[in-house]
Amino acid sequence: MATRHLYLLRHGAADALGHLTPAGERQADLTGRRLARLPVDAVWHSPLPRAERSARILATHLPRATVAAAPELVDHIPHVPADPPPAWAPFFDGYDAEEAAAGERLADALTARFARPAPAETHEVLVTHAYPVAWLVRDALNAPRPAWLGLSCGNTALTVIEYRDTTTPTLVLHNDMGHLPTDLRWTGFGPGLHP
């Protein structure tokens, strides 16, 4: 039975202009080292500079993998709930119906392209952003569309989903930072206590 193995990660830590910081470059390098033992066929990345740079760095450890942009991986809001939780209401304030519809179309294109079995065994890395990772996890769990709001991930934290023809998707890992030293973990999250 062929399995499509998707290794999802948010880009490395970036500055306010969207470029990787030195910490983000280290995160990407360490992620590439972790993935090096796997037979990775392809590294797909968002067209945004922080994701493309992260993909290029980690791909130096994956010599047989192709590297290419996938527009579906761009940073976007995949779903605007009709009645968002109070903590999220200010985030969506002013978000109009046209923007919401465009985000939903992009989210649907993302799942149509990547959240399905492949005709042959594949190992693909998707370097994207926090919201697309959350959206793909929500989809794999068959959770309601607003559930993406509670599925955060850190910079270069690894999430793995497997797709097979005969079963529902399998969420193998979510937000795994085991390849990062303590000082590089939990970047991309707000202040607070982290395990």
TrEMBL record:
The keyword Hydrolase is annotated on this UniProt entry: yes
Source domain of life: Bacteria
SUPFAM superfamilies: Phosphoglycerate mutase-like (SSF53254)
InterPro entries: His_Pase_superF_clade-1 (IPR013078), His_PPase_superfam (IPR029033), Mito_Ser/Thr_phosphatase (IPR051021)
Protein name: Histidine phosphatase family protein
Species, as recorded: Streptomyces cheonanensis
Key words, A-Z: Hydrolase
